Amino acid sequence: MSEKVLMKGNEAIAEAAIMAGSRHYFGYPITPQTEIAAYMAKRMPKIGGTFLQAESEIAAINMVYGVSSAGKRVMTSSSSPGISLKGEGISYLAGTDLPAVIVNAQRGGPGLGGIQPSQSDYFQATRGGGHGDYHILVLAPSSVQEMAELTIKAFDLADQYLMPAMVLADGTTGQMMEPVSFDFQIKEPPAKPWATTGTKCARPHNIANSLYLDPEKLERINNERFKRYEVIKANEALAEEYLTEDADIVVAGFGIAARIAKNAVQEARAQGIKAGLIRPITLWPFPEKPFAEAAKHAKRFISVELSMGQMIEDVKLATECKVPVSLCYRVGGMIPSPQQVYEAIVNAAKEVK
Amino acid sequence: MHYKRITLLAGHYGSGKTNIAVNMAEELKKQRENVAIADLDIVNPYYRTLDSKERLDHAGIRLIVSRYANSNLDIPALPQSMYAVTDDKSLSCIIDVGGDDRGALALGRLAPKIREENDYDMFLVVNRFRPLTRTADEVLEVLTEIEYAGGLKFTGIINNSNLGAETTADTVLSSVDFGRQCSEKAGLPLVFTSIQASLADELSGKIPDLFPMILQKRPTE
């Protein structure tokens, strides 16, 4: 086993992207994810890769489109306001069925908001983020180790399903430092016969395009794309379950919120309350099964979020509103404390007694 | 240890400069009356000396820091009180320089006066478990970049190798050779090996010049 390295979450994402074979990174600095760009700026020139600070987020995402069209692995990163700017480009990538990895280290919003952590881009990420009918894969790491693991997974899934994949982190997971092991088995990326690499007069042109003059064809392509989404929903949903088998109170949280919630669940168990935790690792596709299972015996769900309540809607959908779901939250860059979550569990437990 | 009037800590970001700065300031306060810690970081708005404000106040150590540190305003500003560092000769201070060459840029403003007075030490903080500073050669690269950006020459190396919460005595012991190599390659003395206080008993006698530290609490803890 190789030796662990002490890394910031943002650095772990950057190193993982390089390990996954990405030799192209385009970005524009924004707190709290600038370490990704800083790391790429140092590393890429040493390994024959390209680091380019674009003139804007919009430029960066369109450079991503270009490299992806040419069949190469590529990543960009930003934080909330910058991701909004990339929205158009992400929609174009989805409409062209191109793989790419986009990192969002979320900060408080709306507007310029603040530089402290947030999870309030959940809707934006899980519903696509730009215009048109489409989804992107959304992976939510809750540790620095997972920042690395899920970045590599994002590249693999994006290539497999030919669509953008987002690593949805936040200011905390990006900035905190933890030991990371980089013992990853890297899969060879699949062949990309669709890449625009020059015909050499030996094959028909490959075209990377999201414009369709024929509405019937555009409808057909949308329908085909959504059939692919069904395969993804069936095969790729991922969650961590913790003490849920017999739980009366099931707490749901992703990313940094899940770490806090886990402490609260442990405290509740110590006080004799049957609490459990479901931590969605993929946010799209949303892991509906563990929620549907837990709804068979749980009496209350609590969604813990650094937002005004966004994932709570998916919890309600996944449980078909069979069990009441309450919200435990902080916003604006504030983080719920384990005590706050614990108290929410205690209150829920009182209600069902 | 013996302190010059000004002690600067610089290095790769995340190498542990701030923790060392806070602990050094406390030690310095036991030797001198008028002690300040100056936060010269204009790059990273997180994990600042300001996180230790209560602790520094309690020790009677003056904190010179941007009013925007730890706030939502991410602007590279320094307070006018920063000039006290060079202009008030009755002050003994620890300067926490920002990470890497970019963080050291702000030092250029103070460097001419610090050079002229010539009563300073500047220590390079290294952690062999941080990426991009894993070998003595990589450390030397960072050292040169910081000296170039900041306009001051280093006078010593501090080995602060650790793995965060997973640090054990073996973690520190496995970095001794690295610390020595950095010192030799740079032609600078190894000032001390800094460790979390809980490892002091275990490592005492095994490594010369240990500097046990009480670590600052991180906002997420």
Description:
The complex is a heterodimer of chains A (353) and B (221). Chain A contains twelve helices and 14 strands. Chain A is an alpha/beta fold. Chain A folds into two domains: 5-199 and 217-236, Rossmann fold (3-Layer(aba) Sandwich), CATH 3.40.50; 239-352, Rossmann fold. In chain A, helix 11 links the parallel strand 13 (300-305) and strand 14. In chain A, helix 1 crosses helix 2 (34-43), helix 1 (9-19) runs parallel beside helix 6 (144-161) and helix 9 crosses helix 12 (338-352). Chain A is globular and about 75 Å long. The mean pLDDT of chain A is 97. With 221 residues, chain B is an alpha/beta fold. Helix content of chain B is 33%, strand content 19%. Chain B contains nine helices and eight strands. Chain B has helices at 17-31, 53-59, 84-87, 100-104, 111-117, 136-150, 169-173, 176-186, 200-203, and strands at residues 6-11, 35-39, 62-64, 92-96, 120-126, 156-159, 190-196, 210-213. Chain B has an eight-stranded parallel beta sheet with strand order 3-2-4-1-5-6-7-8, sandwiched between helices. In chain B, strand 7, helix 9 and strand 8 form a beta-alpha-beta unit. The model of chain B has no long low-confidence stretch (mean pLDDT 93). Chains A and B meet through strand 1, helix 2, helix 7 and strand 8 of A and loops of B.
Instruction: Give the largest chain-chain interface (CB within 8 Å).
Output: A-B, 30 and 22 residues
Identify the CATH architecture of the largest domain in chain A.
Answer: 3-Layer(aba) Sandwich
* CATH fold type of chain B: Rossmann fold
Total of DSSP H or I helical runs spanning 4+ residues of chain B: 9
* CATH hierarchy: architecture of chain B: 3-Layer(aba) Sandwich
Multimeric status of the protein: heterodimer
How many strands of chain B? Answer: 8
Domain module count of chain A: 2
Strand-pairing-aware structural class of chain A? alpha/beta
Span from first to last CA of chain B?
31 Å
Structural class of chain B: alpha/beta
Q: Strand portion of chain B, in percent?
A: 15-25%
Strand content of chain A: 15-25%
